[in-house]
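Notes taken during the Thursday session

The instructor put the following on the board and asked us to keep it in front of us for the whole hour. The protein is XXLT1 xylosyltransferase. We were told not to look anything up and to reason only from what is written here. First, the residues (225 in total):
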Amino acid sequence: VIVHDVNELTEKLFPIVEAMQKHFSSGSGTYYSDAIFFLSVAMHRIMPEEITQIIQVDLDLKYKTNIRDLFDEFDNFPEGAVIGIAREMQPVYRHTFWQYRRENPQTKVGEPPPDGLPGFNSGVLLLNLEAMRQSKLYNQLLEPTMVQKLTEKYHFKGHLGDQDFFTMVGMEHPELFHVLDCTWNRQLCTWWKDHGYSDVFDQYFQCEGEVKIYHGNCNTPIPED
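Then, after some discussion, the predicted structure tokens were revealed:
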């Protein structure tokens, strides 16, 4: 077990992610402490070179299968993909991209699966650090000018840290992501069902198959065995 000091990590992270924090943080400014919410975005820059793959998970998870099985998903990455991530299971990005959707009525942005682009949820992440290091495209997208360009194109203002960044990049470059089955990140939060989206909620929330990981996001109770 290797323990990493949060302050040391934040010190390394801050210069890399400072520019994107104002677009994807809940605060109005760029807070030094917020940098840790972007850890996954730049993990390939701060971890030792000998570490080539990392699974990063939230704490509000319940495992119904061996986490080793999730590592096998790295073998399913298509060429060019650098991150494995499941879709967001609420219409949060239908809401966030409202202006872009209004200007582009035929877009798949914010639409539900299987054909739409509902965005991502970063509760379970497979980071192929070697691929992230080697991907010219991915590293270009970390540059402040590129972040600015995409946020302007999509009129994007989020508050969910790395998840917002991955979602926005996924709208533009889906080839960078291997989409995990919903059973690997079965989110339970239903907040948006009661906040204006009850008519479409189930299209985002449904998940067929035996759940491998439950995600009790927004403090939602996780089912007992």
